[in-house]
Amino acid sequence: MTYKIAVLSGDGIGPEIVKQARIVIEAVAKKFGHDFEFTEALVGAVAIEEVGDPYPAETHQLCMNSDAVLFGAIGHPRFDNDPSAKVRPEQGLLAMRKQLGLYANLRPVNTFKSLIHKSPLKTELVDGADFMCIRELTGGIYFGRPQGRTEDGKTAYDTCVYTADEIERIVRLGFEYAGKRRKKLTIVDKANVLASSRLWREVAQKIEPEFPDIEVEYMFVDNAAMQIITWPKRFDVMVTENMFGDILTDEASVISGSMGMLPSASIGIHTSVFEPIHGSYPQAAGKNIANPCATVLSAAMMFEYAFGMMDEGALIRKAVDESLEAGIVTEDIADGNKAYSTSEVGEWLTDFIQNA
Ligand SMILES: NC(=O)c1ccc[n+]([C@@H]2O[C@H](COP(=O)([O-])OP(=O)(O)OC[C@H]3O[C@@H](n4cnc5c(N)ncnc54)[C@H](O)[C@@H]3O)[C@@H](O)[C@H]2O)c1
After folding, report:
1. pLDDT in tens, 80-96
2. Which of 6, 38, 82, 257 would give a disulfide with 115, using CB separation of 3.0 to 4.6 Å?
3. Phi and psi of 103, rounded to 5°?
4. What are the tens digits of pLDDT across the range 159-187?
């Protein structure tokens, strides 16, 4: 069987990091005798430039017809510095999530032995931290309407909307993942202030009795933000709405030591998307210095989640662990030692896999 992978590299460092993930996938495929077919498509600022649309219909069609999507990052300073731009790269990301029905973003947060010293947090706090943050991805304030400004331009508004069905499907996923792990679920909301959060709590409390072996706790987002950095080991699975998840997972990246190390999987109704949690890091674009590991580890998640190929995923993780141990790392985690380029890290990982 040939697995079809849509490759959406996007902007900034996107093409450089995706290239390394791709050679790693090819090495794994060769080792295990799998057949992958890669097809590239436009997304983000580069798609706006070429066809005037950050998520063109052809790209969507390709994603729909593929078995998995490997995604880099989108975003360009030209748009970041121009709040008046009507067509924006981020719209491409949101459109992809909405049209593919990607309602859940799974973000594992864990530590790497040889990187623990990189965390600004004390070693004893982060050593052994290992939790899964499940972020709702197609609802909430990023999608809610109305959104805009009053005619005089002096008042702006966004709307946070959640339906009970949207909440139920993601909270259920949270319970299911907790069941596969240490059986503890933390539901993060702001139910003391927001009506949408109160509905989250109500729906979650209704589902709770169906999962009697899961220990459930409800936590306000401000408290969760504090506990992630003061006691991260207390978490097993965390489920939360779109914007809270966006912010909390960036915060949680300090536990791993670098934004360049955190992968994610976006799953839902149609084809799943595997993408690093970081953005297009425009300052590094074209310099061959960005850390490719978040994207490479997203490829590991692709093997595991999209294809059920656990040994293949495990080999990629082992390669990344070994590269860290051997100090074959990019400048963000080199800690004053020799820094390797993006492509050197990718090639080292590929060699490791070939020789494993
Ligand atoms: N999913 C996405 O595509 C996504 C996510 C977030 C931001 N963005 C976009 O990316 C652009 C830049 O945003 P930003 O600067 O806030 O976030 P960013 O994640 O691109 O970069 C923030 C910082 O994280 C570090 N970093 C990120 N990726 C790294 C890597 N692979 N290796 C080493 N260090 C890395 C760098 O220090 C960088 O300055 C914006 O246009 C934004 O809209 C896109």
Report:
1. 888 888 999 999 999 99
2. 257
3. -85, -10
4. 999 999 999 999 999 999 999 999 999 99
